Structures are given as structure tokens and as C-alpha cells.
Amino acid sequence: MNTSRVRIPEISSLETAIRLYYEKIELGNKEITELFRNIGYKKATALKEVAKQKMDEDDVPQWNALRVNTKTAYEAWGLNIDDLERRYRKLQKLSLFQGGVT
């Protein structure tokens, strides 16, 4: 199998990553460029290709040729929703001691 190698960029924020995970069943270029910091549509397309390969491996159906399954995409990109949520809760808890700044 031909697997793509793509550097996974930094997420724009924990809050955005968590919101998109629960808000969108599938992700397109618009959501992917929102999820990751400073990327364009070309990079979003490359990231979608990595997610599509993971979808094929896991037999996850693709309902829209321009979008990828959110859960599988996060897995393909190394984003663990439980870890993201834990980190977000910890930051919220710590911000109480820093004057409420998030």
C-alpha cells in the first residue's frame, strides 16, 4: 500500500480541536484549515489524503468525496480527543489561579 507521509502541523487551539471533533461528523478543507495553524488548502488536501488512507485501512465509509471522517482523521493525525479534553480541563483549572486568563 502506498502511504503518504505528511508533517502534521500544530493545532490552532485545544478549544477549536475539541469543538470540531464533536461538531462535525466529517471534515473538509475549511474545517481542516481552521483546526491547524497557518495552513492552506494544499496542505489541508495532503492531510485529508492521510485520513482517507486510514479510513480505507479501517473500512470507514466515505460519504462525501471532498470530506473525511472526523474520528478517523484525528486518529490518523495523532490527535487523541481524550488527551485534548484532559489538557483543556487542566488549563481551565489552572487559569482560576492566574486571574481567569485562558
Question: In short, what is this structure?
Answer:
Helix content is 55%, strand content 4%.
Question: Overview of this structure, please?
Answer:
With 102 residues, this protein is mainly α. The protein is 55% helix and 4% strand. It has five helices and two strands, in the order αβααβαα. It has helices spanning 14-23, 29-35, 41-57, 70-76, 81-95, and strands at residues 26-27, 68-69. A two-stranded antiparallel sheet has the order 1-2. Helix 1 (14-23) packs across helix 5 (81-95), helix 2 crosses helix 3 (41-57) and helix 3 (41-57) crosses helix 4 (70-76). The model has no long low-confidence stretch (mean pLDDT 91).
List how many beta strands DSSP finds: 2
Give the biggest beta sheet.
2 strands, antiparallel
- Give average pLDDT, whole number: 91
Percentage of residues in DSSP E strands: under 5%
Instruction: Strand order, main sheet: write it out.
Output: 1-2
The structural class is mainly alpha
Compute the number of helices: 5
**What is the string of helix and strand elements?**
HEHHEHH
Helicity level = 40-55%
What distance separates the N and C termini? 44 Å
Coarse morphology: globular
Write the layout of secondary structure elements.
Elements: H1 14-23, E1 26-27, H2 29-35, H3 41-57, E2 68-69, H4 70-76, H5 81-95
Antiparallel strand pairs: 1-2
Helix pairs in contact: 1-5, 2-3, 3-4
